[in-house]
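hey so i finally got around to running the thing on that chain from the lab meeting. sorry it took forever, my laptop kept dying and i had to restart like 3 times. anyway pasting the input first so we r on the same page abt which one it is
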Amino acid sequence: MARHPVADKSARQRFIGSSIWLTVPGTYVVLAAAYAILPPLQGQEEPGARLLLAVRWLPVAMIPYAAVCIAILLNRFFEGAHNPLLGAESERLMIQCRVMQNTLEQQVWFALCLVPFATYLAAAQARLIPILCTFFAFARFLYWWGYLRHGTLGRAPGVQLTFSLNIALLAFLVPSLLAGCTATTSFTLTPAPQPAVCQHGSQSLNALVLWGGKWRIDQKEVNEREVAAQAGIDRFFRASGCFAQVKVHRLASAPDPAAQAAAAADPATIHLVLVVLVRELGPVVKLGSSAALIEGGTEVVLEISVYEARTSTPVRAFSAHWQNGGPGVLKGVASLPADMESALAASLQPERR
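ok and heres what got predicted. didnt touch it at all, straight out
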C-alpha cells in the first residue's frame, strides 16, 4: 500500500488541498457534460414519474455500499476475524469497515436529497437522476480504491467528489423548501393602470377567450409550458366568475390573432373576445444578484387584447408581467398552472366574491 506523509499537519493539508482545484469544479463539469450528451428521457411529464425514476435509480448509487459489505464478509471469513470485538482484523479489513460506514453515511445524505430533488425537475431535466446516481457510485468507488491504495490521505479525491455532489443537492433543496416563507409577488401592467376586463356589479358579459403561445425562438419545453398554461386558464375562468359565460379555445397557427377573433365571435351570444398570448411561463434563476447568491422563482408574461365582438373593434391591448420569488427562492414547474391562474386574476381583475 503506497503511503503519503501523515506526520506533518501542514503537509497533509497541502496534499488534500492539491486535488480540490480539480475535483470540485471537475464534478460540475462532468455532470454538465453528461447532461448535454444524454438525451431527454421519455414519459417524465408528471412529478410522480420523476419520483419513481429516482427510487429506481437509487440502487445504482447503492452498488459501492453493497460491494464493500460483500468484501467485508469475505475478508472476515477467510481471515478468521469473525468476532469484531476481539480487534483481530487486518489493516485492509479495518479500512473496508471504515469505507462501509462512510459510504452508508453519504448514501443516506444522497438519497434524502435526491428524492425531493426529483420533484423539482422538469421532464427534460429528469435525465439528471441517472447521471447523479452513476456519479455518486463512481465517487464512492474512487474513495474505496484511494483508501486501500494510498492510505488515509488517498481518500481525498473520493471525499471531495462526494461532498461536491451532496452539498450541491442540499444547497438546492434548502432554499426550495423555504421558498414558501420568503417568496413575494410582484405585478406590472403596461400601460398602467388598466380598468377591469372582467364583469363587475350588474354586468353580465359573455366572452370568447382565444389563447396561444408567443414563445422565444430558443424557448425550451414548449409543450410542457403550454399544458401548464392551458390548465391555469381553464381553472381561472371556471372558478373566478370573470364572465357570465365563457368559451376558451386555442388560437390556430395563423399569424393574425385579431382576424381569428373576428372570425370566431358570434355577436348574438358573445360580447367580448379576449386574446391572451403567453410569452413566458416558467422558473427563473439569477446567480449573484443579491446577498443570498441565488435569486429565483417563477414568472408569467402575457399580451392581452380585448375586442368588441359585434364590431370586431379592438377595445384595448396591454401586457402583464407577474413574478413570484425572491432571494434564496428556487421553484420548480409544479406551480406553473397556479401561477398562470394568479397572473390572469391580477390582469383581468375579477370581482371579489
